Amino acid sequence: MLIKSVRIVRFKLMRDVTIHFSADPAKPLTVIRGENGSGKTTLLYAMLWGLYGMQGLTKIANVDTPRLTSTFCPPGVPVSVEVEIVFEHTDDLGTSSEYRLRRMVLETPMADTPPRRARDQVTLFRLTPEGDKPVNPAEAWIERLIPQRLSDLFFTNGDDIQKFISGRVHSHERQSKVHQAIRELLGIDQLTSSVADLKYVHGNIKRRVSAESGKDAEELENMCENLRRQITEQEEKRANLETRQKSMEAQQHEWNRELNQLRGIGDLDELNTQINALKKRIEGCRKRVEAALADMRTAFKSQALSLALAATSVDQGRAKLEELADRRVIPNTSLKILEDRLEDGECICGGDLRLGSVLRDHVQHLLDEQRENSEMAQRLTELRYDARGLAVAATDNETFAARREATLVAYTAARDDLSRADVELKQAETKRRLIDDTRVRTLTDELAAVGKKIGDGVLELGRIEERISSLETQLGEREQELAKVTQKNKANRDLIIKRDVAEELRSLAERVQRRLEGEYVQMVSARLQEIFLSIVGAEPDAQLGVFRGVSITEKFDIVVESQHGTNLDTDYELNGASQRALTLAFIWSLMEVAGITAPRLIDTPLGMVSGGVKQRMVNTITHPPTGDQPPYQVILLLTRSEIMEVGELLSQHAGAFATISCSKDYPTDLVYEWPGEEPEVRACSCTHEQACRICARNIDNAHGLAFRNMEAAI
């Protein structure tokens, strides 16, 4: 979906404003210039209302009943508000069509109460050479094209641009926003519904097959159903507990932040630093202990230990085998020699071994005896060679002893360090609790309580995981039994074919779902890192750099890693420019991987951004798509100061320009007075390098703008 134009009538101070947007893939950028208070945010709100109605507006405006009309409209007089959006959409078959969406409402301003508002009238038409053809239902069709849940991605207010990464929003809320955006744009929600439907169909067919396969099969199917129900219950418990954990972790984060912000109370800062360092030290000690224990377990499973424990018995057996070898009992080679002599008819001593001779009968008797003993001799021969191998391996006994000694030393040292760190941590936490400040002590107690609850929750999650694993094992065993019984009893062949097809479809859908949630999320994460590091000008391997990388975690949190391997606090360790770069990188990478063609409108995106970062940011988010990148549309609402340093890039990438101004700014800022008794917002066709009798401002000389002595109205 690419927006081609918008017409706004009687929305706030926009009495009748029309703006055209670039839908050219080679020049995807539209620049709308406007100073603070000129109507940029009004334009954003009007487009949101036009697409989504009051739901879209209340979400971003943070007002329950926002007023659509101007405050200059007299109370009690109905006003017709209208927004008309013309857009282009290309369907899955590659056919492009043009549409016109119109939303109208009659609003009556009131003196002391919220305005009265009639029901919105929404129409959608497909524009064809034969005439306009209605599309119904209009709102459902728009929701499918550009979901209101993702309006944060498509229409962004510069002040709220960090909502995907800012710690000022609880972590679980950030994660939810990122997760929802990924699921929606990658089509995972629709796929999840399909998987649920396929599971339902597959379950019904399986029950029918079991019913036709006899009582045993039916009982096994009931057992499987019961196990599946228990697994679902445990998974719901896990999900609820994880949500509760996230909420407590968010509260813990806020309390820690508040505690850390307190200043001038004893040695609080020093204690906090010490406590954090001790916690990291304890974690490192625990890892060392676990590593030493793992090394011990590996050593105790080794052949060297077995040889060390059985060395005497092995040596005695090996000596006995060597004795048999010395006596020529093994290896048994006489069998072959006797057979060869009988075949030749002559003994090695020259005696006669032809048929009928006495000596031949004697040799034949010896051959029969040797054959009876040959199997035992062969086994003893194999044992002798195996024993020689053990003799070589036994030389590793000293290595095992040395490894055991080194592992014990490492384990003891780690345990001692852990004990010392634990004592020091308790002492530091005790000191922090003793600080004579009511709020500090309250926060400390609350943190201790919530920390215990979080710890208990982690243990409970572990127990739930164990129960789920056990139930899944039982389910697998019962399903195998059920498959055997079904095959034995030969249920209806058509039903079995339907069951197998349903199972294949369900399995395929689940694999695709896992791939989208795994591989594609990693693709978004990789592209996010590439775009972010490009904007901020960071090299991951630079020794003096700040950023090493960016990633999306399994919990759908966007984290920034420093060159030292630590995660940076996106509120306090990232400047405003880096925060904006991170959010824009996320939006761009997600839309690129998802292959979504949709508008990306951002109000005041370059605040707090300057220099090279500003130029790289503008170039990254406005350059035409290359290679396999899908076409996109970028609409930037910029002030004159934001345009400074990037004017040349805007000229290269923009296919449409407009400037909006408000008459209330005359004469303080605007040069020319407009006719009219009430303030209003107007749009003109001036580019970022021009000014006219509508938009000329007193500061334009400083920006080197070319003046056009006309009213360049659109």
Task: Give a written overview of the molecule.
By secondary structure, the chain is of the alpha/beta class. Among the domains are: 187-268 and 433-513; 269-432. 56% of the residues lie in helices and 15% in strands. The chain has 20 helices and 18 strands. The strands form 4 sheets. Strands 1, 2, 4, 5, 6, 7 and 8 form a 7-stranded antiparallel beta sheet that branches. β17, α20 and β18 (706-707) form a beta-alpha-beta unit. α7 runs antiparallel to α14, α11 (334-344) runs antiparallel to α12 (358-393) and α16 (576-594) packs parallel to α17. The longest helix is centred in the middle third of the chain and has 52 residues, at 438-489. The protein is elongated and about 145 Å long. The two termini are 23 Å apart. The model has no long low-confidence stretch (mean pLDDT 81). GO terms for molecular function: ATP hydrolysis activity. Residues 210-295, 461-488 form a coiled coil. It comes from Nonomuraea terrae. Keywords: Coiled coil. Heterodimer of SbcC and SbcD.
Could you outline the blueprint of secondary structure elements for this entry?
Blueprint: E1 2-11, E2 14-20, E3 29-33, H1 40-52, H2 54-61, E4 79-90, E5 96-108, E6 116-117, E7 121-128, E8 131-134, H3 138-145, H4 151-154, E9 155-157, H5 171-185, H6 188-212, H7 215-261, H8 268-300, H9 303-309, H10 311-326, H11 334-344, H12 358-393, H13 397-433, H14 438-489, H15 493-536, E10 547-552, E11 558-562, E12 567-568, H16 576-594, E13 599-603, H17 611-622, E14 633-638, H18 640-643, H19 647-653, E15 654-662, E16 681-684, E17 690-691, H20 700-703, E18 706-707
Parallel strand pairs: 3-14, 3-15, 9-13, 13-14, 17-18
Antiparallel strand pairs: 1-2, 1-4, 4-5, 5-6, 5-7, 7-8, 10-11, 11-12, 15-16
Helix pairs in contact: 1-2, 6-7, 6-15, 7-14, 8-13, 10-12, 11-12, 15-16, 15-17, 16-17
